[in-house]
## 1
Amino acid sequence: MKNKELAQKLTEIAELLGLSSQDNRFHIVAYERAARAIDSLPEAIETIVAEGRLKDIKGIGPRLTERIVEFIASGHINYLDELKRQFPPGLLEIMSLQGVGPKKAKVLFETLHIATVEELHTAATEGKLRSIAGFGEKTEQNILQAIAFKSRFSGRILLHTAQETAQDIVTTLQKNPAVLAMQFAGSLRRSRETVGDIDILCMVEKGNEKSVMEQCIALPLVQKVLAKGDTKISVLSDSGVQIDIRLIEPRSFGAALQYFTGSKEHNVALRGIARDKGLTLNEYGIYSLTDKTIALGGRTEQEIYEAVGMAYIPPVLRENRGEIEAAVHRALPLLVELKDIRGDFHTHSTYSDGEDSIETMAEDARLRGYEWIVITDHSQSLAIAHGLSPETLERKIAEVQAYNKKKTGITVLCGSEVDILADGTLDYPDAVLRQLDFVIASIHTGFKQTEDQITRRIIAAISHPLVDCIGHPTGRLLGEREGYHIDIEKMLACARDHRTAIEINASPSRLDLQDIYCKKAKDMGVKLAIGTDAHSLQQLDYMTLGIAVAQRGWLESPDILNTLNLEDFNNRQKLTREPHGV
Ligand code: DGT
Ligand code: CA
Ligand code: CA
Ligand code: ZN
């Protein structure tokens, strides 16, 4: 399937067009839209092209069709190569810095001939940027911060990307009869929001390693073998991520899984407790300090945790943040799971910038076993995402009511993701908000305001009686931008007082509210609402990422509003609302 590669190329075209001096806005939007549509297709683009069904995809006109057909036939898009020749390659990387768009990148190139991030760093450090018209000392500082942020992230990949890559490997290797079992390990298994390298364990009987090793080297994604021993191999993938695969005998598999899942801090603390009990723990098993020849356990992880006298600790909690003490006292949280989820709070339909209709989204949610789905299209001022005018919103409400009359087995709730404007007011009047089943208030503009301004703005929204939830509360985008400045503790305290929920936005590059703050929210008595922010039905899958964040934040079913059935959901609605979802 070449979907991802094609989407990436179309995105690059959009980015490069932004550097050009002509007004290309419409072309840029068209390429971005097409990239998103192709990235979320459920089938291979090759098949669609071969069967002449490209025209069925919304937003793909004759020009895009031509480029896509060319790419499928040759693997190249000439137009992209041409654009690349016009601009130095480093400019794309410069544009990916927070706060540096095509306009600034272009000025930097034309005035100071800056064409790489290194050159930009040097110029900013030497104070040369402030001489450019429209730049100031502040811009210089922001650029240095953005470069620092990017290098901190650099080399790490999104959890979702790591999961997809690792799953491909597991699917291939599992076909080998010598492979008895496979498990993710490391930060990937702990579901950290970003992953440095991918760790995978294979259960293989002693003597059977050779064929598995050969198969690892032959994996299609392997670009380079970094290191290879008898039972361990490290490779570099074609997308530049390192993958460590270890082959482990069944009798040590649990011990190895425990060891290589980490975190390092968790393991250090666990070994300390083992030592106090006269035990020693390594990647092969758990032994008595006095007789290291007899293993007391090692086949399963459960054996290890039992031997040191504590409850089994789920991988998502293994960060040495109190889980060991809780396991000793048999007081671990009963973590929320996917099977507890009854609905999704944050989705977009074709009414705003989603790819699928309300009906299509609802049917997919029904197949996932949900009882309800909230469709939260954007509000009027967000023109770039086709925000809805109050008139269009009326039409949408009517469509939702008509849909619910059909009793398909799932209830659609008509919501909106309403912009919190720069002054803290909302993007719809109360009369409009009152007609909605669920209101998420989000910040999409004015990121440069001070912490005080942003916090006040969010608090104004939280205290508004018609707001149910605050969307992606910190505005961060992993690896792209740090988010706006906000006093999280103040926000949470206000949310508790007004019984307004805080979103766990499960979009792969958001995962916002972050795990550590979820735990704080729970401790403060704030409810959380998971929203996938799906812009297509496939993206409803992101619920698993939202669950991972919730679990890493120690959250249990009652902490998460998605576990409410429809009746309880309607009952908790604020009294000011006129119910019409059912
Ligand atoms: P990452 O890859 O940076 O996202 O984070 P991890 O946690 O996956 O770290 P990684 O890949 O270096 O190692 C995987 C696990 O293996 C780690 O969580 C704990 C264990 N481990 C690896 N090397 C050592 C070591 O030298 N000492 C200890 N205590 N544990 C180690
Ligand atoms: Ca790792
Ligand atoms: Ca590793
Ligand atoms: Zn949003």
## 2
Amino acid sequence: MTTRLALGSLAVGLAVLALKVLAAYLTGSIALTSDALESVVNVATAILALVAVRLAARPADATLQYGYGKAEYFSAVITGVLIVVAALLIFDQAWRGFVTPHAIVPDPWGIGVSIIATVINAVWAYFLVRLGTRERSAALVADGRHLYTDVLSTAGVIVGVVAAIVTGYQPLDAILAALVGIAILWSGWHVVWNSVIGLMDVSVEPARLSQIKDVISASAEGAIEAHDIRTRQAGRLTFIEFHLVVPGTMSVEDAHAICDRIEGRLRETVADAQVTIHVEPENKAKHSGIVVL
Ligand code: ZN
Ligand code: ZN
């Protein structure tokens, strides 16, 4: 599923790039050229996402015993860096255009092609974010969010280019290109930040954590308490660890049965949960963690 989405992204990216290059060529606008340059980044992103998604889907092996989930974050970091490079190239173009402004060719076909490219991007971004969230793929969601910012910046550029043609105010083209650059820089920063905290073992969101605590509390019958719960995410995998306090005289067999029950329920709630439970006798109780119902 994720592989097909990543392939789709590549195809859409190439089609949109071709349309935007055509629009830039027909109008000679710096803002539309910046917009096309931005699409080169999208194609690079799609290729990286495809590689990452394929890698992340590999099962754990002897070398990477916790799986390949984090491969996606690497792809997202590289994507973020590429986005920032694109922004810098655009600032350069915008500066040159501002110093020596030149007229935009008022070609209705150029504007039309640009609008078609944006509509394609918008539809695809919507699917990527929706399905990427469902498949819990960091690379695909990053890709989709990034496309949304493209749609916004292209829409702004089209409005601006039309305004520049109508008013005849030439520097507007360069100013718009610079604004596209800022929007791109912002989206690049987000992509980098999200993948960096992923590589740093970010924990689950507070709402998810309380959900996990409720499941433990409701399914640990026979145990006394659970404490020191920790979570970390690696791509689609969620690692959950905690201490489970049981009566000191409980047999290993009974304690293990409780653990298996909790693990099963957690996997029903959190897809791809990897649960590790440390069992302790009651004198280790902290009376501070999750009270078992
Ligand atoms: Zn403990
Ligand atoms: Zn076991």
